[in-house]
UniProtKB/TrEMBL annotation, chains A, B:
Keyword set includes RNA-binding: no
Cofactor(s) listed in the protein's UniProt record: Mg(2+)
UniProt KW keywords: Isoprene biosynthesis, Magnesium, Metal-binding, Transferase
E.C. designation(s): 2.5.1.-
GO molecular function, one term: transferase activity
Family according to the record: Belongs to the FPP/GGPP synthase family.
PANTHER family the UniProt entry points to: FARNESYL DIPHOSPHATE SYNTHASE
Enzyme superclass (EC): transferase
Name used for this protein in its record: Polyprenyl synthetase family protein
PROSITE patterns named among the record's database cross-references: POLYPRENYL_SYNTHASE_1, POLYPRENYL_SYNTHASE_2
């Protein structure tokens, strides 16, 4: 039987091929294309696309149907990293141990590569021959809401405004919900939508997706305290250096770990409600909760 | 009878109201919203939205149908100006005599406001209750192509790479076609598409739209030589100072004016072919050709 790691690696390969094909088909040779390919191929874990695929499979739908939206989602995630790394934003020189886009190219190219990936994501969905017009409209709409000024971009703005300021757990969760939670949620919900699940299943899956976003973020914060800097590709303790509010800082390390366990419980119970607890999707919850990078 | 100026002013008001409503409905109060509203209300001429409307009216279709896509297009145009003005790109402090977005706010906010407007544009189209799913998919697809890595963003990249370099007329036209032509073309074509025009009309209108993009750009270049710096809101001669290739520089001022006249002729003849030469759309061609800002 295929292990979770094998599953993840298999779909990583498939997603990588499609991402590269999309960019090669929809751009002309030159610096903009090179810069887009550079960040797309910079070693992303493809968590979001794999969540789309695993959700489809949990509901026994052919995962091929989800490939275009999975790639569109990864393009948006990649664009957000390129823009977040810019000197005007987080000013990061390295990501996953490699020069960030603006270090490899320059700031202008990085801004344009981000803009291009964001725009391309909507082209990819609308040209998918596996999707009906109704599905395309739904997915473009949900993806734009999840990533736009009522989702990810809003979270990034509020995250920047809250730097050097100690905030409450409530506010911290609201920021993470927008900044990283919405896209993770979109991954699960787009899969469930394409799987044409019942309203009860959709509700259970929505609950699971919200918990997953928080699990993801708490683990991020925990890794910044006790992680391996080689594995995560950035120095340990950078949150504290940047005076960023985190779960361990608000709850203590043990409190943060307990909080994460609580959300893992919520997520797994949501899957049970809809009878999909013995699936890769369920394994992925534990995998994300215990990831080391 | 309503004059062209009155027509333009009337629709400017309608478009402005809708743009502000969209942003107020789809964002939460705070710095991101303020920054988006600042640039949206910075005195844009709304040429692209008005071209959508005038095309619909030329084919006797209720212009209301075009309002969402007209606003989406203006959001994309506005985002492109915000990002182009950034220090990493053209580094402009003023636009239309007012501080650019990053001068009024800061670079990070300007990057995010641009990202937000770009993303919001696709949300606006997919939520339009005047459009069918088929129309929404068509418009999102065409708009993403016109503005993405095979359209506007590509043109901006190649324009930057060609700075401080004398280029041929052919290359100059190719850059302008991507950088400004594609969005202007989209304005006309989206109007004609929503007007469900015949294939011959669509072909004529496509010809007209291509000519219009060039008329627009040539006039831009001419204004940089003989314009009124107060009217255009930036100093005269900035193209030469920036060593930018322009029509007057490649063809001489008189040559550029003749080239523009040639394209006006092409554009007007295209309208005649489909019997819509006595329309506001036809008046707009002359208006754009002779605009002083």
């Amino acid at each position: 039987m295929e292990s979770l790691n094998e599953y993840v690696e298999r779909y990583k390969g498939i997603i990588n091929d499609h991402l590269n094909n999309y960019i090669l088909s929809y751009t002309t040779p030159g610096r903009l294309r090179e810069s887009m390919l550079y960040s797309i191929n910079a070693g992303g874990k493809r968590l979001r696309p794999i969540l789309v695929i695993a959700t489809l499979e949990a509901f026994e739908i052919d995962p091929k149907k989800g490939i275009p939206v999975a790639c569109a989602l990864e393009m948006i995630h990649t664009y957000s990293l390129i823009h977040d790394d810019l000197p005007a934003m987080d000013n990061d020189d390295l990501r996953r141990g490699q020069p960030t886009n603006h270090k490899q190219f320059d700031d202008a190219t990085a801004i344009l590569a981000g803009d291009a990936l964001l725009t391309l994501s909507f082209q990819v969905i609308t040209e998918a021959d596996t999707l009906s017009n109704e599905e395309k409209v739904f997915l473009v709409n949900e993806l734009s809401k999840a990533s736009g000024p009522s989702g990810m971009v809003d979270g990034q703005m509020r995250d920047m405004l809250s730097e050097n300021e100690w905030i409450t757990l409530r506010k911290l969760e609201a920021i993470h919900n927008s900044k990283t939670g919405q896209l993770l949620k979109f991954a699960i919900l787009s899969g469930a939508y394409l799987g044409k699940v019942s309203e009860e299943s959709m509700q259970a899956v929505t609950e699971m997706a919200s918990a997953l976003g928080l699990i993801f973020q708490i683990q991020d914060d925990i890794l910044d305290v006790i992680g391996d800097s080689d594995a995560i590709g950035k120095p340990i303790g950078s949150d504290e250096d940047n005076k960023k509010s985190t779960y361990p800082q608000l709850l203590g390390l043990e409190g943060a770990i307990n909080q994460k366990k609580h959300y893992v419980d919520v997520a797994q119970k949501s899957l049970e409600k809809t009878g999909i607890q013995h699936t890769v999707l369920s394994e992925l919850i534990d995998y994300l909760s215990n990831r080391d990078c």
